[in-house]
Amino acid sequence: MMTETPAQLGYRMPAEWEPHEATWIAWPHNRDDWPGKFAPVPWVYTEIVRHLSRVERVNIVVKGWKMRVRSAECLDKVGVDLGRVEFVKAATDRVWLRDSGPTFLVKDDAGAVEDRVALLDWKFNGWAKYDNHQEDDRLPRRLARRLGLRRWAPRVEVVGRRVRVVMEGGAIDVNGRGTLLTTEECLLGEVQARNPRLDRADLERVFAGYFGARHVIWLGRGILGDDTHGHVDDLARFVDPRTVVTVVESRRADPNYEPLQDNRRRLEEARDQDGLPLRVVPLPMPEPVVFKGQRLPASYANFYIANDLVLVPTFNDPADREALNTLAEVFPGRVVAGIHAVDLVVGLGTLHCLSQQQPACPGMNRIRELAHK
After folding, report:
1. 372 found inside a domain
2. Is 361 a catalytic residue?
3. Quick one: which of 333, 240, 329, 232 has its CA closest to 279?
4. Which of 53, 139, 279, 285 has minimal CB crowding within 10 Å?
């Protein structure tokens, strides 16, 4: 049984823009997640994989081999090199691997190569909302065995008992240097409470011990329509160690206007782990996206950073161009590509929600260079 935390052993959660070994996704299968709009969703996934497979390996979780055949046929039709794709058989309830999948860690200092990447297996409880989450909760353990990686299942002591910590990847964002972003609504609110017995100080100790976060920036509320109740990856994201993009609503009558203005103010007053101010870059919000009378969580902040590439959800909206141009400016060394997400967001998530990066092993590029000399 491990008693030392990852941070005590030199591990940290890397920033998303650091080199990836692969991206993990799960092929869509739960029709209830896209009621009345499931048919186009696999084709959105093929477009995502078409882009990602050009810059890194894509690991696709499938429930069974029939799904593997069907998904491979779809990918082949759009010209994906299937040699850049690996199919992994594992049961899932849903496909939002940002939240149900593992959180990967890296260890930068010298040591055995096999110890330089590890993972966290948080307890997943369906966002404290959905009952069918048991297969999703088992997924990180299954992937740890498959990958042969060291695994922590974070626990804290509550009233004399060691209990697992509930956490989702969409609830946090990091700069890889020691600063973490999250929201009070998601992790401290009474609605969909993940860890009702843990307060702000308790959670900051968890972040320090398991992510290596020395400093936490707390934002307020999330966007309307977000059934996770305040995930930060629909609000604000680090794009380099000291730059954060944050969505702002220009329409004063919109319910998102005040919460997003408050989040922007908090970021402008915030400091990083070294006490330095952040550069805060605004991102627009699209016009409300509504399906069957329900407002959906459409946000340009739900982009995904891959090797040499940034994928951005777009919504057939005039603000698409502004969002793509803004992200192209803050990611000058990467291709910035839009992915049509009007159908995808019916499932209450988009690109960042469905993806999970597996970081490259620190130092491996140098090791490979030396091996070929």
Report:
1. no
2. no
3. 240
4. 279
Q: Which amino acid is at 82?
A: L
Answer whether residue 27 is part of any domain: yes
- Neighbouring residues of 227: CB distance < 8 A, sequence distance ≥ 6: 127, 129, 297, 348
> What's the confidence (pLDDT) of residue 207?
98
Quick one: how many helices (H) and strands (E) in the chain?
10, 21
Summarised one tens digit per residue, pLDDT across range 128-164 is 999 999 999 999 999 999 999 999 999 998 888 899 9
CA distance 151 to 145: 9
Q: What is the CATH number of the domain that holds 255?
A: 3.75.10.10
Measured between alpha carbons, how far is 61 from 26 in angstroms, rounded to an integer?
A: 4
Catalytic residue among 74, 186, 353, 361: 353
Domain range spanning residue 283? 7-361
- Domain count for the chain, please give it: 1
pLDDT at position 322 is: 98
pLDDT above 50 (res 95): yes
Statement: the pTM of the whole predicted model exceeds 0.90: yes
Among 360, 358, 354, smallest CA distance to 341 is for 354
The answer to whether residue 98 scores a pLDDT higher than 80 is yes
C-alpha–C-alpha distance, residues 347 and 228, integer Å = 12
Strands 243-247 and 236-240, by their bridges, are: antiparallel
Residue 35 in any domain: the answer is: yes
Q: Are 122 and 105 in contact (CB under 8 A)?
A: no
- 43-68 burial by CB neighbour count: b if 16+ within 10 A, else e? ebbbbbbbbbbbbbbbbbbbbeeebb
Question: What average pLDDT does range 45-68 have in this prediction?
Answer: 97
